[in-house]
């Protein structure tokens, strides 16, 4: 069950040793809304969990593309998806931003999707071709291209990251700036080695199963 995170009246220290703000609806990504730093987490293990969720989210797309004989597009999309899966955590490297702020919102997911779509349409497609992307949707009369596919991949990459983060106690504020409420499924801490390996195994299994059953 989804629960709201109650922000305390006074700033307090979380189990990871950083300050949590008393602002329930303020803009994320500010000094007063700081979350725990990833510096305390085993970086490689933490990334594996996100990669696993990304693969699981991408599995239906893999099945769809392979069913239409678009293996190159499926492979290329998967590579880009995994490359972008950790992009939201760029906020840990930017001055003035705290973890799980602006870069962990639906707005950021759409922005990344647009950026990737533009690069795919105007930089990649004219150089290396469409990789069959004009037919990837498979709806008669509905023409698409590598730009639309790039938008899907960029958006899914960020959404998969948010999905992995929402199961942790810290949660995310995905609807900012329209709504500043935090959401968390509170299933496992982000630093859990077991949970991250389970996510990687589950996502890999789903992606591999989708590929094998679609060939």
Automatic annotation (TrEMBL):
UniProt-listed Pfam families: YdjM
UniProt entry tagged with the keyword RNA-binding: no
Keywords: Membrane, Transmembrane, Transmembrane helix
Keyword Membrane (UniProt): yes
Membrane-spanning parts: 72-90, 102-129, 149-172, 193-212
UniProt protein name: Metal-dependent hydrolase
């Amino acid at each position: 069950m989804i629960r709201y995170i109650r922000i305390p009246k006074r700033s307090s220290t979380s189990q990871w040793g950083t300050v949590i703000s008393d602002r329930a609806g303020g803009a994320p990504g500010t000094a007063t809304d700081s979350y725990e730093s990833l510096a305390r987490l085993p970086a490689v293990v933490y990334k594996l969990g996100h990669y696993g969720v990304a693969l699981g989210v991408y599995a239906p797309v893999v099945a769809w593309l392979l069913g239409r004989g678009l293996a190159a597009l499926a492979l290329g999309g998967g590579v880009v998806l995994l490359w972008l899966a950790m992009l939201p955590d760029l906020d840990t490297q930017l001055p003035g931003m705290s973890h799980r702020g602006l870069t962990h919102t639906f707005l950021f997911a759409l922005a990344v999707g647009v950026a990737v779509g533009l690069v795919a349409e105007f930089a990649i497609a004219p150089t290396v071709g469409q990789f069959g992307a004009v037919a990837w949707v498979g709806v008669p009369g509905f023409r698409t291209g590598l730009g639309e596919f790039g938008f899907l991949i960029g958006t899914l990459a960020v959404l998969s990251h948010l999905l992995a983060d929402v199961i942790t106690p810290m949660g995310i504020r995905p609807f900012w700036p329209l709504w500043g409420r935090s959401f968390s499924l509170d299933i496992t801490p982000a630093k859990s080695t077991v949970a991250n390996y389970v996510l990687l195994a589950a996502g890999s299994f789903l992606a591999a199963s989708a590929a094998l059953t679609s060939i």
